[in-house]
Please model this.
Amino acid sequence: MLAGIGHGAVVIGLTVSLFAAAASVLAARSGDIGLATAGRRAVYVTCGLSAIACGVMVVALLGHDFSILYVARNNATTTPPFYSFISLWAALEGSILFWTLLLTGWSSLLLYRYRSAHPALMPWAAAGLAVVAAFFFAVMTWAGDPFVSVTPVSAEGNGPNALLQNHPFMGLHPPLLYLGYTGLAIPFALTVAALVTRRLDAQWLTLVRRWTLVPWIFLTAGIVAGAWWSYEVLGWGGYWAWDPVENAALLPWLTATAFIHSAMVAERGRSLRTWTVILVTTTFVLTLLGTFLTRSGVIESVHSFTQSAIGAWFLAGVLAALMVGAGLVVWRVGDLAGTGPPPALVSRESAFLLNNLLFAGLAFAVLFGTLYPLVAEALSGERLSVGAPWFDRVSAPFFAALLFLAGVGPALPWGAASWRTLRDRFVIPALVGLAFTTLGAVAGLRGAAALLTLGLAGFSGAALLREVVRAARGRGRSSGEGWIRAAWGVATRNRRRYGGYLAHLGVLVAAVAVAVSASGSIQATAVLTPGQSASLAGYTVTHRQLVREPLAADPRVFETRAELDVSGPQAGMVRPALRDYPNSVAAIATPTVMTSVGEDFYLTLLAYDPDTGAVTLRLFVNPLVAWIWVGGAVVVLGAGFAIWPGRRAAATRTGS
Amino acid sequence: MSVSTPLPPPIRRRGWGPWLVGAGVAAIIGWLAFSGVGNALVYYLTPTELAARGEAAIGQSVRLGGLVLPDSVSGSATDLTFVLTDGETEITVHSSVAPTSSFREGAGAVVEGVLSPDGVFEAEEVLVKHDENYVAPTQGQLPAR
Model:
């Protein structure tokens, strides 16, 4: 019954989205407003249908309806309601369903928002988005049906993947990431529309920038939440391993970030439009590629790719999007040619160009490292991976140069900078950077990379603050306002610029935290019987007892935990544990993290001996890790500040 | 400097200067990066494949997967010696990194490290599983990462 409704919604969704695409194309060609309205409303209907399908799946999950294969595989009678609910995106078919809901939701939002604006662009954008939605509905119809029935009906169910029911963050990280991924279809659709209608003007650029920044915020938050989840759940003491799944999320983020910056140059003249189109298209293709890489099993082995039809569908989707993008660029190459004077070598324009080269270069390097094992396996049959140290080494110079530019770019004037300007704006920041590095070295920070990061962050942070102070002082002098009021006035009058500065400051904070935590992390392994103690960096851990009991929330899960007394800079009783899930071979770590402003004390239980009560613990002292999450939050806050409608924009909207 | 005075309109229609400088910087970084990729590769091997490499395998970073031979485990958690097998070849592994509790005799294990000249595999890392459906390796089969 439920499966029938869900399946019906998917099939009707495919039909309606094809209708939406056809009606929108016809409307765009004929200019028929009635047809355009029909196409737009059909997109709303696809959103409603995906919501019905998702709703059906959630009801089936919450009601443990094991006649649906997806539910039987990813749910159990004992699964708590929260994890039953979020199992909607715990596995392949469900996440494609959820994905479709978010995509059609974004599409509806865009089309509703501009229902009486941009009459030339919107029908084409609707057509593009409807085609993408049709693709996902088709995948669910033919390759990855979430509503496949199964007999005999299992009485208990398999339960969700153990790793995914171990921490509430699984309710947060995937939706944020998917909101980012799916939202990036919008700038692509808008760009396709602009290329077809030859309206590659300032209006298009403003639209694309705004509709890239919104999903970018979600993608950023999703990546940071994913790193946090990895840190809190996996128990290896780190947050980023250059895992293909992580790289898949990072790649579109890099190109979207490049676009957000290049748009500021493109808006000032008619230059860089080819590059803009390339970045927007690449970003969308990378979101599809990321889905393909993480969802087809191709990362495990080239050969496992053929086991699921979904891999082939996504590969076809990636190629189709690439061909559409490249074809349109070639078709409209005459409209894309840049004009305008060449930028001076030392200018804000140049900083933006260099920024774009660095982001694009870094994206290429990460893509290379991620795909290399696939190509190597396909060609030679050898299975290998590119180690994390390679990614660290390759990305380090890019990140260092980008940190430098984060302060240099905003402080450089448009046009050309004179020596006097350079001296005025950069001498103090350079001294601050030197002071930071010196202080770091005195404080015992080891490693050239960490010291360099500290210096660059000090330099860029000082350059940014100097710009804010300069502007606030100017305003304060003329208006007689106090310090803080003047700064707030300056910032709210130019939200984009100062929101950008705030995002840069967040990046600097996170970068310092990453560098210091990577170079300053210390760890130890200890085997303790009850009553014994171990010490690390001022902390003393005493093992009290080993406890093994079923989890209150789900009695099929056994938790074995070490009850430990911690004394030192942070103190208290902690219980790192290992959980045995009935559907998982490996026990799942449940580490404990004690967080303070300066450092985390991270304890993970590796192994235990039930006879003697002895435990094997790994202890980490990770400096500044909490500041990575703080920095990430500041980036999101800054970007949100930048796109928040200002007073002027709000006034014009209510007035119109 | 002359840049502060207005320049005459440029003759060239487009400015390639900054792009060329940037491309040069990117090329240098790229060269530094990709020249080292050969050393950064970690091969996934079974004991038989590792043995087949002979002397060439020594010092090369490898991810070795197999089954822990029953009754082969000795030593403490942080000074552990055991034998990994794929049913054909057996390789002795020494690890100073404590394995997780899923480490059991007869079960599958994946270790990352290097083969030392004396033929003992020195494990440097016990891997974190990140995949959705981890399946324990069976005899003769290369375990999933």
User: Anything to note?
Assistant: Residues 1-5, 7-14, 128-145 of chain B have pLDDT under 50 and may be disordered. Chain B is about 20% helix and 30% strand. Residues 35 and 85 of chain B are 35 Å apart (CA to CA). Chain B touches chain A through 56 residues (CB under 8 Å).
